[in-house]
Model the fold of this input.
Amino acid sequence: MWEPVRTAGAAATGALTGAAVSGAWNWGLGEDAKVCKDEPGVCLTYYPLYALVLAVAIVAVLVPVGLWVSRIHPLGVSVPLCLLLMAYVLLCSGDWLQDPGTPALQLTWPFVLTCAIGPALVATARVRRLQVPALSALGILIVVSLFARA
Done:
């Protein structure tokens, strides 16, 4: 398969995963808000937990299947790396870390593009002549995101 097609497939996998996780998380929080809207005291439901489990399942299924379909080999290296990158992106992107009162994970173009960058760079790093630039870009993105949160 042609390398740009593989990279596009990996990016589409990341974007689809980000959009699906955002939808699952926002569904859980929306249902929680509906149930608790008339509750004057503390209201605890299982919807956020359901959303978290659903989000983990989505990532655990979509990333390996998407990388397998895109033929991003070796899967033993690319799948764990992409799973870690997706977890990192989702944890850093969630408002629950900055403002616990509004824990929404907004489905926006920057969010979806951020989810797509990690798998695309992993796919690009497979090409020998592009390994150094792809891994450098990945490192820069991780370091910049660490400082951007502060």
